[in-house]
Write a structure and sequence with these properties.
Length: 89
């Protein structure tokens, strides 16, 4: 199969959530076989910002599901959603 790049939108629990700290926590739970390719902060509304993370997912069982499940367990995460999956350029 090879590597695919999954863009994942992580919504914090509140506007007070420290997104740099949240990113560090998310990086710590990335499953073996996947790695962080990049990240950015994206304004949503009313001061709320989402953390957009691009994860390279190799030949791991379940594909992005393992990453989504791991991210959902992190304290401070409200929701996790894969917004795009494609081949890296």
């Amino acid at each position: 199969m090879g590597d695919v790049a999954a863009t994942i939108r992580v919504m914090p629990e509140s506007v007070e959530t420290d997104l740099d700290e949240l990113k560090n926590k998310l990086e710590a739970v990335i499953p073996e076989g996947a790695k962080l390719f990049g990240s950015r902060i994206e304004p949503v509304a009313f001061g709320l910002k989402a953390l957009i993370m691009v994860i390279m997912v190799g030949d791991i069982e379940g594909g992005t599901e393992q990453v989504e499940s791991a991210f959902a367990t992190v304290t401070g995460v409200e929701s996790v959603q894969v917004t795009e999956v494609g081949r890296p350029v």
